[in-house]
Design brief:
43% of the residues lie in helices and 14% in strands. Helix 1 packs across helix 12 and helix 15 packs antiparallel against helix 16. It is globular. The structure holds NADPH dihydro-nicotinamide-adenine-dinucleotide phosphate (NDP). NADPH dihydro-nicotinamide-adenine-dinucleotide phosphate (NDP) binds next to helix 1, helix 6 and helix 10.
Length: 409
Amino acid sequence: MALVIGDDTANTGTPRRVSVLGATGSVGRNTLDLIGRHPEAYDVVALTAQRNVDLLAAQARQCNAELAVIGDETRYDALRDALVGSGVEAAAGTQALCEAASRPSDWVMAGIVGAAGLDPTLAAIRQGAVVALANKECLVCAGELMLDEVKQSGATLLPVDSEHNAIYQVFDFNRSRTVDRIILTASGGPFLNLDVTAMAQVTPAQAVAHPNWDMGDKISVDSATMMNKGLESIEAYHLFPVEADQIEILIHPQSVVHSLVGYVDGSVLAQLGAPDMRTPIAYTLAWPDRMATPSQRLDLARIGNLSFEAPDPMRFPSLRLAREALEAGGTAPTVLNAANEIAVAAFLAEHLGFLEIARVVEETLSKIAVGSVADLADVTAADIEARATARQIAGLPPLGDGRLSLVQG
Ligand code: NDP
């Protein structure tokens, strides 16, 4: 199903009402950096975080937000105390996260990490806002359902992921039949040239040290396993009117060419830029206009050479697992994502080795029959079953409740 391109809602002259879900994360902080450079252009409605009360309160005070929500209810008192005298309303809990996402806004950044972002992102979509989608996991889990909601509400979904944002910029939506492939570039992460024996020994600190991008821990580990590119293939399948076999992956270690679109006449169009998330975020924030950013200007003469190579499916089995899940359809991508969230959290907690992340995902997928997805209950049930199965495979104790959330290992 194709991405819905909405009407021109920008440039009304009055400040745009904006909310940032996951404000304390890497995407959230970059978003607020841009908003803070143009305070006259934006009224900040709601900011959310899960645990980081101090930063959330500081951000809310700084941008004079209407509402600050902390997901972890046990931190409500701390948030309320930190906001005394600020005029910022405080709230807590998963329901409050959805209420923040529902509060009337023109633009909402969906910057929560993991499937935990699904309900708040859906709430933002249902209010018909322009939704800047960074949270790829929710689209992987519930792609068709989310796009149905986009259609029904008239919301506009704009991709934030640098690859999808690049494709969005060069994809001819009016002549999509002239597109013969899209090519997602991948840096290859910190272990691009490491052999499997050495990979088995890598530590969380090494895995989160991405060579080009400064990102949150989960996506950094996903980049190191290349599951990130697998998730992005599924994301691309939902966002653009292409078939699974029209989606290619190309290793490009410099992260300058953010992705490409190939046309039937042999032309290939690409979007390039310095590896700075403020560029794709700015694209969505100013859309359909453009705004100035402090991102470094691209100096190709200084860079000199750009290199490309095919990915190695043997050392990066996550690419194959994601492709198989995409082809299987139904609940398979939900299971893939949930098992990966559990395995990555277990790796970050030093409970699993790096290579075991893909093993846990593969075994979880093999143990759970693919079901059909008619509604969100199917997604939630598959997510809960996959998390429980993955925890068992990873040797983790069972969890009391099977909440749809990014559960730490
Ligand atoms: P971070 O880990 O840096 O930030 C995650 C944000 O989500 C934080 O605000 C965090 O709050 C909040 N959060 C964590 N768990 C929950 C939960 N269970 N419920 C509600 N909120 C929660 O992640 P990133 O910013 O790196 O990534 C965010 C999303 O964007 C991911 O889906 C990622 O794949 C995607 N993305 C990120 C890019 C990047 O450059 N970082 C690039 C492209 C896509 P707290 O701080 O309190 O824990």
